[in-house]
Write a structure and sequence with these properties.
CATH class: Mainly Alpha
CATH architecture: Orthogonal Bundle
CATH topology: Farnesyl Diphosphate Synthase
Radius of gyration: 20 Å
Order of helices and strands: HHHHHEEHHHHHHHHHHHH
Structural class: mainly alpha
CATH superfamily: Farnesyl Diphosphate Synthase
Helix content: over 70%
Shape: globular
Mean pLDDT: 89
Distance between the termini: 14 Å
Number of helices: 17
Low-confidence stretches: 1-14
Number of strands: 2
Strand content: under 5%
Length: 340
């Protein structure tokens, strides 16, 4: 099994506690969000709470709803609307995970059997639809057309990102720009919306709403860039999934794009065979990682992540210093410096 343990020997020790610090900062609100999620998962159709609960309880960090709660605190919001909207954000995210695993034919999610592997594809798709509907019920109950506009737009963009990924799947000619369009839609848009609605409920000026949206968007891009590197570089127990899932599924991520573009004819033939023709043999994953290492594709993908994290950091410049701002800035270090 291919494991890359040190992409950048000069990198500093990861900020391991940064995410937990942010979670601790909003712990009381997050408990209320979790209680609401459990309440709204209920259905007289027994399989719905069983399947939804299986995925929601499988170890996710609730990063997106945490961002909504933290953004509201950063904007000095004193009400309770952020809690139900954070639950809506988590339902949207969970629905996309259920649909993603069916589309990708994935057997694992966070190191456990995926919901579709346990319950089947059809129930997973339908329960995903149920959770998306629950999210919209929460938005309607909130009563803000602006919130509804932001989150419904995010849902549409995520779906567009899924279709874009289908178009680029197994296509080794995919450009870096096309890859970025996919992750901007699939991942970063919900990060951006989760942050923006924290400012909207606080009735903050448009400039602050845009700044939090920019923070979330660039955080999301950085998060996915590093996640795509980790698929080729960390042990299963640390990642919560097997190494090389993207490779086996023929996904075209930035490490592949860079290695293909920088390789010679023989190397490009290898990528076409393994990813386009899906003809893979023992040792191909190790060879793929060797090519990525030779051409600095993993290292440079992380550096792209650092670039977007720096943009996210600058976006928070409008806000006064305080524990919320510091925690949100520290999460950027955590996202980039996760163990490779």
């Amino acid at each position: 099994m291919a494991v890359v343990t040190n992409i950048d020997p000069k990198r500093r020790k990861p900020t391991a506690d940064a995410l937990q610090d942010l979670i601790d900062l909003v712990a009381d609100d997050l408990k209320a969000v979790n209680d609401l999620i459990i309440q709204r998962m209920h259905s007289p159709v027994e399989m719905i709470p069983q399947l939804a609960g299986y995925l929601i309880a499988s170890g996710g960090k609730r990063l997106r709803p945490v961002l909504t709660l933290a953004a509201a605190r950063l904007c000095n919001y004193q009400g309770d609307r952020q809690k139900s909207l954070a639950a809506a954000v988590e339902f949207i995210h969970t629905a996309t995970l259920l649909h993603d695993d069916v589309v990708d034919d994935s057997d694992l999610r966070r190191g456990l059997a995926s919901a579709n592997a346990v319950f089947g594809n059809k129930p997973s798709v339908l329960v995903g639809d149920f959770l998306l509907s629950r999210a919209f019920q929460l938005m309607v109950e909130d009563g803000s057309l602006e919130v509804l506009r932001i989150l419904s737009n995010a849902s549409a963009v995520i779906a567009e990102g899924e279709v874009l990924q289908l178009i680029t799947a197994n296509d080794t000619e995919t450009s870096e720009q096309a890859y970025l369009e996919v992750i901007r839609a699939k991942t970063a848009e919900l990060f951006a919306s989760a942050c923006r609605i924290g400012a909207v409920v606080a009735d903050r000026p448009p400039a602050e709403q845009a700044a939090l949206s920019d923070y979330g968007l660039n955080l999301g891009i950085a998060f996915q860039l590093v996640d795509d590197v980790l698929d080729y570089s960390a042990a299963q127990a640390r990642l919560g999934k097997t190494v090389g899932d993207d490779f086996r599924e023929g996904k075209i991520t930035l490490p592949v794009v860079l290695a293909f573009r920088r390789g010679n004819d023989e190397e490009r033939a290898f990528w076409r065979r393994t990813l386009e023709d899906e003809e893979q043999h023992d040792g191909d994953l190790d060879h793929a990682v060797m090519l990525m290492t030779r051409h600095h594709a993993l290292r440079d993908s992380v550096e792209r992540g650092r670039h977007y994290a720096a943009i996210a950091r600058d976006a928070l410049g409008l806000f006064s210093d305080g524990p919320e701002k510091r925690a949100l800035l520290n999460v950027l270090d955590f996202v980039i410096d996760r163990e490779y």
